[in-house]
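dumping the sequnces here before i forget
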Amino acid sequence: VTTGSSVLEQLRAQRGALEARLSGVRAIVAVTSGKGGVGKTAVSANLAAALAADGAAVGALDADLNGQSLALALGVRGQRLRLDEGAVRPAAGVADIRVMSLDLLMGAEGAPLTWDHPGGLAADTYAWRGMLEASALRELAADTAWGELDVLVLDLPPGTDRFDAVARILPRLDAVVMVTVPSAMSLLVVRRAIHAVREAGCPIAGLVENMAGLRCGQCGALTPLWGSTEGTGAMAAELGVPLWGRVPFDPDLAEAGDSGRPLVLTHPQAEASRVFASIAADLRAFLAAGA
Amino acid sequence: MKFLCLACDRAMDLETTAASDGGAMSIVYACAGCGRRMAMVTNAGETQMVRSLGVQIGHEEFGGGPMGTLRGALVQGRPLAAAGREPTWTEAAERRLAAAPPFVQGMVRRLYNDWAREQGIDVITPQVMNAARDALGMTEM
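..and the predicted 3d for all of it:
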């Protein structure tokens, strides 16, 4: 006999289940920006791969439900997920990275993310879609058999509001890596995102400048893709965020992402790969200092 | 959500839950003391809001299992496969796998294992790898 639905108790139980699932994860790291199109997924994939190549047990969770691309970047698209003792076994990515993405649960190729709902509610989707997607993200994290991990890398969607939602769903975030490109437009948004992350009480570990310029194959000069080359460093210094690295634009980086083999694995000596390796080392040091 | 029987000063028991195709739901409560019964009826929007939290309403059964809310709500979802025994690999198959770049070996092994399980194959040989490669459209390995 029950006396009611006990929604609050169920929500607490969900939180407890998520905490239990992530108890074997030593560090949860969010890669975020606030701005779209700056290369969060490329940074997430290469950071995860650099950590894995260094011997760490790494998981990667695609938290961008409406723009899933981490499964492609880590080479697991098409893998069929399996139930395994009451949980879903993550896809096996390159360098044995354990990957979970909504992309692996989607049916028709190219179909947008659409949620089922009772008839007549289509116009009111805005009222419940956010809640449902928060529940979906919680389930992706809580119902995946991550096992023991040194690091779980989260590839977040753009938008500062999305970061806040993720931060409130997860029991903890041990480090946040911010990503920007050196454009004034990106820096404007990322500056706001840095404040939002701090207001959420999450530790910003470092800032990555992606697409920092195009290296000339002839003379070796770095040609800026946006006018200014000083904005990122100035903002980082002003806000007290360590600038961990400037990743040059590299066509091989895009090609590696599309092929599911991150650049740090296919071209470990490339300049961008060396920057990613340095960023991974900075992250390890940050996590070690906080442990 | 709880209801109190004022006459008996006790919580009513949740008796039945019934959902309609249109998304409305009725939840019937009864007082074990005096037998009084009452029903709460939610409209489709209210039901959807609560379900979006991934919680169960009364005795209703929806979703269920790992990622049940998510999988139950996806319009074009892909079913999960049941866990099965890992196929064994012959030495020749292992040698061929070892020729792949180390960082993709785990992923490739998983692809072959998954394909073999779906075909009901227990042992992976180079011939099985060829068949899987053709079926999956893999250009390497």
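Chain A touches chain B through 62 residues (CB under 8 Å).
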